[in-house]
Structure formats: structure tokens, C-alpha cells
Amino acid sequence: MGIGGGETSDPNKVHDDSVEVPDTAHQISSDSWLQVAFVLTNGVNSAFVLGYSGTVMVPLGWVGGVVGLILAALVSLYANALIANIHELGGTRHIRYRDLAGYVYGKKAYKLTWALQYINLFMINTGFIILAGSALKATYTLFRDDAQLKLPYCIAIAGFVCALFAICIPHLSALGIWLAVSTVFGVIYIAIASVLSIKDGIQSPPRDYTIPGEGASKVFETIGASANLVFAYNTGMLPEIQATIKQPVIKNMMKSLYFQFTVGVIPLYLITFSGYWAYGSSTETYLLNSTKGPVWVKAVANISAFLQSVIALHIFASPMYEYLDTKNGIKGSAMNIKNLSYRITVRGGYLVFNTFVAALLPFLGDFMSLTGAISTFPLTFILANHMYMVAKKNKLAILQKLWHWINIVFFSIMSIAASVAALRLISVDSKTYHLFADI
Question: What are the alphabetically sorted keywords of the record (predicted)?
């Protein structure tokens, strides 16, 4: 369908001919705001939510965790709105984050932004494979706790399934019905984990909610948790997602963002708070490992988490796929032998490397912290505020500029501090666990 409602054979055609659209092998302006909202919501409520009780609430406690999650949601909505509103800056659809940065700052910023985004998405993809592998191992352990199927093997299986899915789904807009399937899986594991947590909490004696650790260790854990706060809400690829939405792209994107940060965050809050309430400071990094209940119920939740991770990974890998497909001129039918063999080779190779790193360093919480620190902070908050200020320099009052500078300085400090904390966590865990650890 064309953006104006009529038919068009060109998937990159926009309703406003005055707006230039860069060349891409993937579809542009084909999705409704609701489909885009579900892309965003699936990212927010991916199986990573099974870790927030342990990686956010335990280091921050009730006050820090609840206030932190709410404040992080507000500042994330604000920062994403800034990026969404300059999507058509200068009469051009900036369908990639690096394109927008390059237009505002120049070639060096283009390369730096692409590097930051690649790191962000690579680490998120690696995290999804670790998560899928952990869910698979948890399922196996429910039925046979004989330590025969180790985590690295589960991660390898997860990587293989992710590669199969990536080969079958050519681009982000093609997810279509899979978004609904992913949402169903998300509802299943969130509902089961929440209900089992609440049941355990009612039946358990009073829990200890004291923030663990002492001295420098406690400080670093707290700083690392702050990176997890921003990781929870942000994709680091908003222009790429906005590229798929129908015209008017800014108005529709704002609808999607409002949906994400209202209806979309309710499941995240439910599972995060109920999990921490039930188990306190002893909450596991993977919440389903803390819950007690019928084996088959927990198995359904774990399998749902595994399958949802496979679908969600495709969302965060799509900018890399788009770059590779466009660079190599992969257009036309997805089932064309040339295109199919290309996806098998290139996407399969990319995910094999992802899987290797995931099995090598399977520290899920540390990956979340480091991703938030070195890429989510800069991309979502520092760059968003500064790009918006540069783009609107002649239209902003002094107080507005001051507000943006405060955001830039604050999040720059947070990014540096969180990076140090995350690297320290990885260093500590690397000494505790060997490479390819079965944790």
C-alpha cells in the first residue's frame, strides 16, 4: 500500500515527494503506527525483563529501583521524542541513526555513531543469545538435573535457531504476524513468572531487602544498575524503526512512543516489582530460577522466553542486516536463490560470531550494564540532546539550550562511571568463572 492510501509498486515511495528517501534494500514507510508500537513494546518486554528484579532492584532497593525505573522511562521518552522529531530534518528521511548524525555533524560523526550503534546492537544480540541459551538450559534442568546439557551447548543451539529465523525473515517490516506471536510468548512468561513470584511471596517469611555489598563494591553495583535502567527502555535504533512507519512519520512515531511508555511498560513493572517483592536481595539474575511451581508451568515459561528471544533478536539485528543487504544490492524476492544463499552465508556468519562471544562470556547482567554504559547512554541521551540542539539552534531559547546542556553533561558523567563499573563487573566475573562457563 502507498502512504497516501493508493497502490504503489515502490516500497520506498513516500506520500510527500519533497522528502528525499535514501536508497535501501529494505521496506520503508509500510507499517502502521500500531505495528511499530508493538516492535518497540516487544523490545521493552523481551525476555530481558526476567532479569530486572535481580539486576536493577537488588542493587538499588525499593526506593532507588522504583524511582529509577520511573525516571528512566520519563527521560527515555523525552530523548526518543527528540530523535523522532528530527527524522525529516532538511527535507530528507534519515532512515539510519548514522545518517542523521552525519547530516548534523559530518562524516566523522557518521562513522563514530555507526561504531557506537554497532557495538550497542552486537551486545544486545549477544545478550539475547545468552538469554535464549539460559532459558533452554533452565528447561532442561527442570526435567534432568544431570549437568549433561551445559550452558555453552544451549547457547550454541539458541544461536542456530536465531540464524534459521534470520534467514527466513528478510527485513524488519516482514516480521508482521511474528510480532503478535512474540507478544503472546511475552505475555506467557511474564504472567507465569509474576503469578509464581506472588504465590511464593505470600507463602514465604519476611524477605531481606537490604542492598547487598559494602564499600566500593556496593557503589560499583549501584552505578552498574543505573546503566540497566536505561537499557530497559531504549533500542539505540529509533531512526531505523521510524523508517518503517507510514506517513506522517513524526506524528505516527510519537503515537508509537506514547504507547510504548504507557501500555508497553506495565508488564515490565509487574514482573520486576513482583519478583523483587517475593525474593528480596536473594533474587536470581534469571527470575524463573527463583520461582517455585509445577514443572510443566515453568517449562512453558522458559520455552516462551527462548522463542521470544529468537524473534526479538531479529529486531535488534535488523540495522546490520539492512546495511549488509543494501551494500551488496540484495533486492527482490526473499526466496530468490541468490538472496537466500546470501542470507544463509552472511547472516549465518554474523550470528555464528555472536554465538561464539555469547558462549565465551555468558555473563548476562554484565552485558546489560556494559551495553547501557558505552552505547545506550551516548546514543539515546547525549547524542539525542546535542543533535536536537544543533538542529534547532535558531529556534531554542537560552533556558532550553541550558536544559539540553545539563542533560548532555549529566549523561556523559553517567556513561563514564557506568562503563568503569560494568568493566569491573566483567573483570570480577571473569576471575570467578572460566571461559565458556556453565553458569
Answer: Amino-acid transport, Auxin signaling pathway, Cell membrane, Membrane, Symport, Transmembrane, Transmembrane helix, Transport
